[in-house]
Description:
The protein has helices at 42-49, 114-134, 151-163, 174-182, 196-203, 221-226, 250-254, 272-287, 304-312; strands at residues 3-6, 17-20, 30-40, 63-71, 83-86, 97-101, 105-107, 142-145, 166-171, 187-190, 209-214, 228-236, 259-261, 295-300, 319-323. By secondary structure, it is an alpha/beta fold.
Amino acid sequence: MPKAIRIDAYGGPEVLKLVEVDVPKPEAGEVRIRQHAVGLNFIDIYYRTGLYKGSLPSGLGFEGAGVVDAVGPRVRHLKVGDRVAYGQSPLGAYAEVRNVPAAQVVKLPDGISFEEGAAIMLKGLTAQYLFRQTYRLQGNETILFHAAAGGVGLIACQWAKALGVKMIGTASTPEKAALAKANGAWAVIDYSKENVAERVLELTKGKKVPVVYDGVGKDTWETSLDCLQQRGLMVSFGNASGPVTGVNLGILAQKGSLFVTRPMVGHHVNTLEKMQAAADDLFALVLARKIKVRIEQRFRLENIGEAHEALATRKTTGSTVLTLD
Length: 325
């Protein structure tokens, strides 16, 4: 029988259990995928710890890549044998075989490997909706993006460069700062040594930035606001340091009539058509080699606890995948 990771309670990496599972034939609108690789993301930790709550027992993980081995009724765009990937599915990607709603699955181009597909779908779709939908960058802007050496961050560095955007990234070490710069960031601020708001002011010659993309959360909230121009947009899309709470809306007026949004990828790719369009945008840049998929860590399914520990302690750079071959 195929194996999968399940949790019966919220907690640390110790709650992750490798179990055998029965995977039935796909129902109407579903496909069954024999997976070759699975992507890991910080949001997986939120669901493991209970910061984001689902129903227990539960699987974990949102993205993967593999081959369709069964197709349910009313599925028209996929067939058995198709190479596929997905980045926004029901919980349960940490599995050798699984059923997935077909509307969330796209064909994987031949020029992109299974590992690359698994590594880039959720992170790449995140960069796509941030840059092309939430605040549609036109080119020539100067922007701020926190955690520029992370999985989403390194894609964002490359995407910004492809768009002709000057991206100021933040990073926690000189090594991570160098990595972000090598991937296309215009400038990188080492926040362990530099004051981010002051440095942004210097880099922009006093103008600040029209948009900040912040996946860190509470630790960077006020700093991000201080980096924005009047009527600028704060895009708070993650909680790596914990959720932003207790916000006084009056501070937005005090700091320049600022706008704030808390977007989610699922709301931007909630139909097959939207998913396909976003994936096409992403795949085109990967195939043109304007975005290189950086897989810096690989773990086996049975070593998922080690993978989560590395992710939680910020010892990772780029993307992390589970290999199932």
